[in-house]
Structures are given as C-alpha cells and as structure tokens.
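Q: Okay, next protein. This is Thioredoxin domain-containing protein from Phanerochaete carnosa. I've checked the sequence twice, so it should be correct. Can you predict the 3D structure?
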Amino acid sequence: MRGKVDVAEVDCEAHGALCRSQGITGYPMLFYYGANGGSKTEYTGGRKLEQLKAFAEKVSGP
C-alpha cells in the first residue's frame, strides 16, 4: 500500500468549517477520496488493520 494511499486526519475543533463542509457528524469518521477529486466513500467497517487494508485495496483499484 505504500505510495498508493495517503492517510490524513483533521482536528474538527480547529477546522470546523472544513468538517461541516464534508458532512462530519461524529468522531471518528473515515473517508476515502478518489484521485484527482474523485468520489468520496465513507468507511463504516471494522477498525482492525486487515479490515482497513482490505477496504483501501478495494477502493483504490489495481
């Protein structure tokens, strides 16, 4: 997965406008944003590494 998916976090207390614009309704919320402004997909699965990795591989394509 190195070089294929970037991971970032946002402090919604410090950046409330950004979080509101993205529809953040609770914490933690995880989203995948497609390349070049592509689609936004919310992740609702488990929080274990293998589950997160499987989701990232599925949505990021070959």
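A: Here is a summary of the prediction. Residues 16-60 form one domain. DSSP finds two helices and two strands in the chain.
Q: Noted. On to the next one.
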